[in-house]
Amino acid sequence: EDWYRARCARLHERAARSQEAVRASRREAGECRRQLQARLVEMESLRGAHQSLERQLQELEERHNAEAAGLQDTIGQLEDDLRNTKNEMARHLREYQDLLNVKMALDIEIAAYRKLLEGEETLFNMGSSSIPSLNSLPSPTYSFQPRSFSSST
Questions:
Q1: Where is this region: Disordered (predicted)?
Q2: pLDDT digits over 36-55, tens only?
Q3: DSSP 48-66
């Protein structure tokens, strides 16, 4: 009977320890459940934040691509403008060269006429010294009226 009582006491003691271990395990399991729930809520929150950041990133990429396309268009327009300006400058340079060539030709022609006029004036002066009545006339003055040229280039 003593053995039985000792055995029962040990069993009751073990049962009490087991119940305490079960309660501790249940408390630990409850704590783990609460931590799991907190982690799940945190994970869902982070997932939402991640999706929000992904959307923002996509919007930024779309906006960047749109700006880049706009800048490419602007660059293309500026390159076209530059090309047109260069062509226009080349055209003006050709016109200037043509006008310069016309001016040089006119300068040569003016010099030739000037020589002719000086030669005739010398002849006229030599001839007027032999005719005294013509000496009283005023000496001739010549004025040059330049011809106007238009360039069709």
A1: 129-153
A2: 999 999 999 999 999 999 99
A3: HHHHHHHHHHHHHHHHHHH
Q: Which residue has the tokens 């340079």?
A: 93
Residue 34: φ, ψ to 5°:
-65, -45
**What's the pLDDT at 80?**
97
Rg (CA), the chain: 57
CA pair distance 132, 153, nearest whole angstrom = 55
Query: What is the structure's pLDDT at 149?
Result: 46
SS3 of residue 12 by DSSP: helix
Residue among 105, 124, 127 at smallest CA distance from 116: 124
Give the single-character DSSP code of 132. G
* Rounded-to-integer distance, Cα 8 and Cα 20, Å: 18
CA atoms within 13 A on the CB side of 92: 6
Reference 149, options 80, 116, 103, 96; nearest CA is: 103
Determine the Cα–Cα distance for residues 106 and 145; give it in Å rounded to an integer: 12
